[in-house]
């Protein structure tokens, strides 16, 4: 394959890299006064990358025409679907970010540039078909994430969050790298197809240790139990727009990377890792639900909600079928809309002095102060709880359906029972907003950009979202088949 074809297939990453480098120079020359225009141009670059990825979506078979740089990278429907979610989520975060930092006089043009570099790394992660490509993309995404978590230099909570994320993230990266070295040592290849062929010929105990180490490191990246310990502290301490970013785009990238790894190079040894995934899924659902019950900080609660939702996504992976992968992707798409809407609403909660409100006490009686915002939050919380007819119910339905079709009836039954626990803290939102007396003054107005993002998210998770079930089902099935068949 010619380099011209490879450059074309990686056009989204190349375009974002060039845009980030150019905007970095602009930021260096002009300082903070260019932050607004750099943000606008970054949003345009991300939307352009998403449109380009849509154009590549039909390369579903993942054959030679979709392989780049000697099969280090594959442009298939699976990668394109994940990148569309990543780029659009990152663009939406940039739209709602500036107001938060401007209030603190700490918004800098480097912020959107870091988001672009992060997006480049995430794009490489989801399309990698070689362990070296995967690791480079993972580190590129992680390094910018550490800086974003500690972006508020004058806030000790932000600095603490960045340090914790850096230390534990470096540990997880080391675990992945050690697992990669074991896999390479026992297979003689870092290419996914080479690893799959070697495992099919013989799967030794040493290779099993390599698989376990790689999956354990990836479990940290998706904040699955028992590698979830960093999530509540980082989500609470990081600036709220950064927390919203961590809960959406990187979550999609890490989960897509885990799906491709498990079903690609490790797909022939499902029985060796399925029990690990089942444990992580059930433990994440239970720990996420129980951990959230006693929380008073809304960001910390949403961190446990994220852990809880990862468990449901892992049920689709445990099915280890194309239908299970498609169900996980469907849940991911719906999850991004729910979480993005929740954090947008959280950013709209401010007192008259412009300080962000983050506790249950702050939203007491919100329905009397900001009824539209309260009803939007009600819809989002009910959707996260999986209550019909909201679209969040469909996400849970398809993953449980995939588990039942894979003869994992017990897993589906336990998952359904455990999901009831999570309904408690989502309903707590409703009780506090609609039945408690107001205890805080709430800012009366919010920017149109925030309302636009919130309205789109609420429309997607409302019953109107069911209009997307057929096309979304087709897209995710095509995405799942694109790399499962290729392997």
UniProtKB/TrEMBL annotation:
Subcellular location: Cell membrane; Endomembrane system; Membrane
Major place of residence: membrane
Keyword Transmembrane helix: yes
Highest taxon listed in the record's lineage: Bacteria
Chain ranges passing through the membrane: 6-30, 37-57, 77-97, 109-128, 165-187, 207-230, 275-294, 301-323, 329-349, 372-394, 406-427, 448-468
GO molecular function: oxidoreductase activity
Entry keywords, A to Z: Cell membrane, Membrane, NAD, Oxidoreductase, Quinone, Translocase, Transmembrane, Transmembrane helix, Transport, Ubiquinone
Keyword Thylakoid: no
Domain NADH:quinone oxidoreductase/Mrp antiporter transmembrane: residue ranges: 128-422
Family annotation (Pfam families): Proton_antipo_M
UniProt family annotation: Belongs to the complex I subunit 2 family.
Its job: NDH-1 shuttles electrons from NADH, via FMN and iron-sulfur (Fe-S) centers, to quinones in the respiratory chain. The immediate electron acceptor for the enzyme in this species is believed to be ubiquinone. Couples the redox reaction to proton translocation (for every two electrons transferred, four hydrogen ions are translocated across the cytoplasmic membrane), and thus conserves the redox energy in a proton gradient.
Oligomeric and partner information: NDH-1 is composed of 14 different subunits. Subunits NuoA, H, J, K, L, M, N constitute the membrane sector of the complex.
The protein's name in its UniProt record: NADH-quinone oxidoreductase subunit N
Organism: Qipengyuania citrea
Recorded name of the encoding gene: nuoN
